[in-house]
């Protein structure tokens, strides 16, 4: 092993430790316990104080990748006070619980298990009365896991629309604008079904700006989007004519006012409800910054709200790393630059990968031949697209290692085939399911020049 490989190996270990520190900082169970406690018969949720004697029953409902550990924390606090509960999580993200049932389903494209889980949740909250409390646990991934097609639509309709939206490069805000208007549970629908019970939502954010009505399509919060905006998203990305005819008919009826809109801000039925944001991408980045500084780096958070086409975002990030290495701007090495958010990939090929692996591959091409640079891009949930990797880690020799195996990195990038590339050269970031989800974390480590 030469000197450069030794330095690169050490920096990779540092980058992975920083990533794991970021993920651990948004552990769902700890996040819930920071907001939920019980003392003297009074349940404290954030700043609210709820005497248990005021409620006949407490129901727990939830959907999202972090649903199982969030539910586990609620059981720790409330135990036998929970009358009944159901949470739907991504396949492989479940945990054994005592009073709350855990259902696993497919993500990001929904399946029949998601429909069955959603119907179970709807049945649960629908029987809540005026003197009951419903605690909803919402996290990223809930949009695909809480599947309740609107009247006249089918699971197949939802699957086709979801896949088209994922492939066209739409942002999560745009995707969820559409999904909210094709569901009975999204866009405040779940809270509506729980009336007249009081609803408290504990939410782990996986969206840019932490907009509550976008996280998991906001099943328990007022929705600011409209049928008209949903139709415009489908038109903007050229998929209006490609979605099922039943979906076009349904959206058009909504635009004409023939179908009731999602629940809107100012709706008095939300007056007894409350929402607590328990975990965010920024919290993860702040923990990552502290760990990087412990390891001797000057650390800076570029932004926790990065979005845009993945390969283009990678070019901007690598330009910052190269500038720092060669000129000392914006800060002299050793430097750690952190960013978060959620980029998009416009699918042009038929390869295998995810946005984090695609970011890493694009970055590897940009830093080809550079010394003392490590770039890591990983999903905080431990999965990147339809793969078992969280993302990938690259350095200035990654592209050359691929070419030495007869693999042109640019060709793999253009085919959206990043996973096989990294699988061959050992660049995949493998964590397994983390059971949390606060979007992505990107880490750029820039070391000093020789001498």
How far the N terminus sits from the C terminus, by CA atoms, comes to: 19 Å
Report the CATH C-level class of the largest domain: Alpha Beta
Question: Regions with pLDDT < 50 over 5+ consecutive residues?
Answer: none
**Any idea what the shape is?**
globular
| CATH-derived topology of the largest domain | glycerate kinase, domain 1
Individual helix count? 16
> Can you tell me the number of structural domains?
2
What's the count of strands? 15
Architecture of the largest domain, CATH level 2?
3-Layer(aba) Sandwich
What does the radius of gyration come to? 23 Å
CATH superfamily of the largest domain: MOFRL domain
- Kindly name the structural category: alpha/beta
**How much strand content do the residues show?**
15-25%
Largest sheet: 6 strands, parallel
Average pLDDT level:
96
Strand order of the largest sheet: 6-5-4-7-8-9
* Helix share, percent: 25-40%
């Amino acid at each position: 092993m030469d000197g450069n490989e030794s330095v690169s190996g050490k920096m990779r270990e540092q980058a992975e430790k920083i990533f794991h520190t970021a993920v651990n900082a948004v552990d769902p169970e700890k996040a819930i316990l920071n907001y939920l406690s019980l003392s003297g018969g009074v349940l404290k949720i954030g700043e609210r104080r709820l005497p248990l004697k005021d409620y006949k029953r407490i129901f727990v409902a939830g959907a999202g990748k972090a649903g199982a550990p969030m539910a586990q924390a609620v059981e720790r606090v409330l135990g036998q006070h929970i009358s009944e509960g159901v949470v739907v999580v991504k396949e492989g993200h479940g945990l054994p619980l005592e009073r709350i049932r855990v259902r696993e389903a497919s993500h990001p494209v929904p399946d029949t298990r998601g429909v069955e889980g959603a119907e179970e949740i709807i049945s649960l909250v629908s029987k809540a009365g005026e003197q009951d409390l419903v605690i909803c646990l919402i996290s990223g991934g809930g949009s695909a896991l809480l599947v309740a097609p609107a009247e006249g639509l089918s699971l197949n309709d939802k699957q086709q629309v979801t896949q088209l939206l994922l492939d066209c490069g739409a942002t999560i805000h745009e995707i969820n604008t559409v999904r909210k208007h094709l569901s009975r549970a999204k866009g405040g629908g779940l809270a509506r079904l729980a009336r007249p019970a009081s609803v408290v939502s504990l939410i782990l954010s996986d969206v840019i700006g932490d907009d509550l009505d976008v996280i998991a399509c906001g099943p328990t919060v007022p929705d600011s989007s409209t049928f008209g905006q949903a139709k415009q998203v489908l038109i903007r990305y050229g998929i209006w004519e490609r979605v099922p005819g039943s979906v076009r008919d349904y959206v058009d009826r909504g635009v004409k006012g023939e179908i009731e809109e999602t629940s809107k801000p100012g709706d008095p039925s939300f007056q007894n409800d409350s929402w607590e944001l328990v975990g965010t991408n920024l919290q993860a980045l702040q923990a990552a910054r502290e760990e990087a500084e412990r390891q001797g780096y000057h650390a800076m958070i570029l932004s926790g709200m990065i979005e845009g086409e993945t390969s283009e975002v990678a070019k901007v990030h690598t330009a910052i790393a190269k500038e720092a290495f060669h000129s000392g701007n914006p800060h002299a090495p050793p430097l750690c630059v952190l960013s978060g958010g959620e980029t998009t990939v416009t699918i042009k090929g038929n390869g295998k990968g995810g946005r984090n692996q695609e970011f890493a591959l694009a970055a590897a091409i940009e830093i080809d031949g550079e010394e003392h640079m490590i770039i890591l891009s990983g999903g905080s949930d431990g999965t990147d697209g339809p793969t078992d990797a969280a993302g990938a880690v690259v350095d200035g020799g990654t592209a050359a290692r691929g070419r030495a195996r007869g693999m042109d990195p640019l060709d793999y990038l253009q085919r959206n085939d990043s996973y096989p590339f990294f699988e061959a050269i050992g660049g995949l970031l493998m964590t397994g399911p983390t059971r949390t989800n606060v979007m992505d974390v990107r880490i750029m480590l820039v070391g000093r020049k020789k001498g």
